[in-house]
Amino acid sequence: MNIDFYAAFAIGLMGAGHCLGMCGGIAAAITLGMPQKQQQQRWPYLAFYNIGRLLSYMLAGGIIGGTFSQLADFSGYSSALVYLRLIAAIMMILLGLYIGQWWLAVSKVERVGQFLWRFIGPKANKMLPLSSPIAALPFGILWGWLPCGLVYSTLSWAAVSGSALSGGLVMLAFGLGTLPAMLAVGTMAQQLQLVLRNLYFRRASALLLLSYGVHTGYIAIKQLM
After folding, report:
1. How far apart are CA 194 and CA 222, in angstroms?
2. What whole-number distance in Å separates Cα of residue 170 and Cα of residue 58?
3. Domain limits for position 179
4. What's the domain count of the chain?
5. How far is C-alpha 54 from the chain's CA centre?
6. Are 39 and 148 a contacting pair, CB within 8 Å?
7. Alpha carbon distance 139, 130 (integer Å)
8. Contact 189, 32 (CB under 8 A)
9. 85 CB neighbour count, 10 Å cutoff
10. Helix 164-186 vs helix 149-159: crossing angle, to nearest 10
């Protein structure tokens, strides 16, 4: 499997603390909004919600990956994807600094999607409380478009994947990496939440992402020389 898939999975897994802050309240609302007698049946709701969320990630990755690969082919510029990979490496470094809470510049990237979210957000909120597990699927699809610096950083890797299929798979790997955090919130797994929110865990994760970003940037620069 391409190393970008592993990198995308690592971004999702290591950005767990950010996931808890951005989407944790939504995952909790899925279960807290249920009638008390349905609380023991939360898993189907959580499963369909997360499937919907991952479908949105894959769609976005497919669109980005396919678009940039076609632009590179159309331009005939063989180094286009290498330059994009350098940008992706920079985004990885910025993301590492963000997760480690050393520099929060990536949070400004989230403003990019605020315009679209003004239309999507209210529609998603109107769906609560969920009437059935299957209703969690479209709910998750809508919430998959929540403006998120973590998602946008990973989309930069989808952009250099070389095809729509690879871009979708990169975002699927990212989504799978976020599952532990989202399921921990949905099931109130307090111990796992404490680990994921722990500053030392976040900074250790951030250092790994920084290392990978620097390594990727170095490889891209060598290819351009």
Report:
1. 41
2. 8
3. 3-224
4. 1
5. 9
6. no
7. 8
8. no
9. 24
10. 160
| Residues ≥6 apart with Cβ < 8 Å to 22 | 146, 148, 150
CB 151 within 8 Å of CB 57: yes
Confidence of residue 85 (pLDDT cuts 50, 70, 90): confident
Q: Is 104 exposed, middle or buried (0-12, 13-18, 19+ CB in 10 A)?
A: exposed
Helices 3-14, 16-32: crossing angle, 10 deg rounding: 60
The two structure tokens encoding residue 91: 């985004």
Cα 16 from Cα 141, distance rounded (Å): 20
Token pair 């480690």 is found at: 100
Q: So what's the pLDDT on residue 43? A: 81
Confidence class for position 45, pLDDT limits 50, 70, 90: confident
pLDDT over threshold 60, residue 74: yes
DSSP code per residue over 6-19: HHHHHHHHHTHHHH
Cα–Cα distance list, 77 to 57, 67, 70, 81, 82 (Å): 28, 15, 11, 9, 10
Dist. CA 39–CA 2, nearest whole Å: 40
